[in-house]
């Protein structure tokens, strides 16, 4: 095996930042869903899907960051590739909270825009890292 390290330090830092930011994102989104359900006439049949989407996203996020981090540190393209695939799901859920959830507040727009920016940056770095591991 080659002696130099292929794993991406910027990607690893981004995974860490993403993990910290997602905790904030999750709590903020959960708080806003609760706030909206109190302040607005939130139809009951819309509250459950919004909450379910957030919890599915949280599970996806943990899995995505774990696989990405593991793939990067062990220099294996498979977990990193799987993490990249899971990012698609996270992006769709983030867009859901940005556009399609029952009530979209300005704060929703801001925190989702930041998350999507992180996903974009992370995905680009993942592709570069996968290319380095494969070559």
Automatic annotation (TrEMBL):
Membrane topology: Multi-pass membrane protein
Entry's localization field: Cell projection, Cilium; Membrane
Transmembrane domains' residue ranges: 13-35, 79-99, 111-134
GO CC term (a single one): membrane
Pfam families the UniProt entry points to: Transmemb_17
Biological processes annotated in GO: non-motile cilium assembly
UniProt superkingdom: Eukaryota
Assigned keywords, A-Z: Cell projection, Membrane, Transmembrane, Transmembrane helix
Name the record gives this protein: TMM80 protein
Lineage: Eukaryota, Metazoa, Chordata, Craniata, Vertebrata
Name of the encoding gene: Tmem80
